[in-house]
């Protein structure tokens, strides 16, 4: 009774503070069989409510899930059955059935699956109901199933229909709840779960108790999926353990632990590898602790001591977890268990377009390495060959305009002069993977197309093409701020960067710190417009970026441009493509 009285005092305080009163007529209580009748009467008199045998559903979900999970979620199965019976009475084409299955049938359990882990038997029953509707007709309740449901759940480019496997979709939805716990550690939900289930460790190190709640069991089941794709983004390095955590792009946690077995039992934090005075890595310490490959990967990581360390999801450009990307990760992992034997064709059958493209790029790089050995007597390490191939593939993808994304922004096909009163800044980046360097090109022009200033600058090694593009934009803004430019039009051929700066979405990727710096710099101008330009409209900046390899640090031209850029500038000025 003492606990009930304290809860009632808290609710009384809430009523006084908010002005909202509890409706005691609608208050009901469920008691277990072990509660004494006298105690039941006292509690009901205290609360002014009534006793009931079971809870009513709230937002279609059971407030309490007992031992029988099938009975708790039977309402979802019944609602799906009712909809399927209505659809069967109508003349619906096969294409219409596909739309109904995807848009309606599979959306029915989505809300419940985002909160609870469904039994696999229930997922199987729901899938079989959808399959019978898909293969059946109006006169017969069932027809021959010419393909397994797993085959229909494959993507269309792999011969399926794109239906979802409900058990995997359930895990992807629950991983979203885990992502919220991971990234919102000041929330009440996180504090409650941490106090109850992992008070002395991190979320990924939590254990499951036999008496854990059904909600926590569901989130816990999705943690392996979340852990497989999450990585630390280095800020001040105080929250990241060097050996135990995943924080090096392009390197798994197991690889780091294998390379540093002598430190597996020690807790070494990443901030111990950072020089606080300069805000950069302790290069000698990094190269002494790690092998050359890992050391080079670490030295590519950008540091921002003013920011806290944070998590990001590696399968999304924005760095934020999405159910779509989580489901794709599960499908990819499932395809790796199929056991294709020793033939190479499984890359085509199970790898998808991305893996197939990577496979052929690496094949070309190996062939090129062979030619260099035969004709130039130069032997490159295999790790260098692989890194160069991946960098080349990433650079190629960077210059492609994606149909599904290009509609979000206005893409300029050729260079055009800025509006009156504005100056136009074109920027571009270039990567020199063989030399672990990068270059930036900047050119500022007025409304007549005349060059005000141009710049080529050599930068250090970078982790990704997006990173050097963001660095280039930041350097250009810094130069314009020094020159006192009031109104500016920015043009870059990096569509990802333009989308990131124009949208309100928070980016958590490796170049997110640069995006924050760019946004702060843009607020210092009277007016700034940022546009995406096609490669053909950014040739001058591209040539300046490629020229950065020929300079030691930085070269600038005032009131003119170098001879190797003059033709591109003339074509832009006269609008000739």
UniProtKB/TrEMBL annotation:
Cross-referenced Gene3D superfamilies: Ribonuclease H-like superfamily/Ribonuclease H
Highest classification ranks of the organism: Eukaryota, Viridiplantae, Streptophyta, Embryophyta, Tracheophyta
Protein name: RNase H type-1 domain-containing protein
GO MF term set: nucleic acid binding; RNA-DNA hybrid ribonuclease activity
Residues of the RNase H type-1 domain: 426-548
Organism: Juglans regia (English walnut)
Coiled-coil ranges from the UniProt annotation: none
Pfam families reported for this sequence: RVT_3
